[in-house]
């Protein structure tokens, strides 16, 4: 009986260690069904050209209107000598297609990964965030350097 017992344990251990294939839904595009009524998903980037005092602000707000998704893109500028002098320099609305939705979904995945890698924050740097109006999704990433180009890449994709 001892041999049978050890054989059963070994069999169970070996069965559990088998590599299972990963299932990835990389081809599936998010439909953003949680964006309804006055709801939205807001993606922001705050830059630091004025050092620890901040810099310009960019925002991509995903909204639904007439059963369609849109990206409302805004960008401001700021005079570092007068930080209250913000001016909107870019404002446009883009109807989202499948490629746009995939780009947004990819951006959110990348932002999540970046936020999990984040080190101790500094006083200056870029600040990226994604949040829904009801706070069911909140992601933040503070970058001390200027290496991550995810937000700029998303803006380019939304312009296509």
TrEMBL record:
Superkingdom: Bacteria
Name by which UniProt lists this protein: Lipoprotein
Organism: Flavobacterium bomense
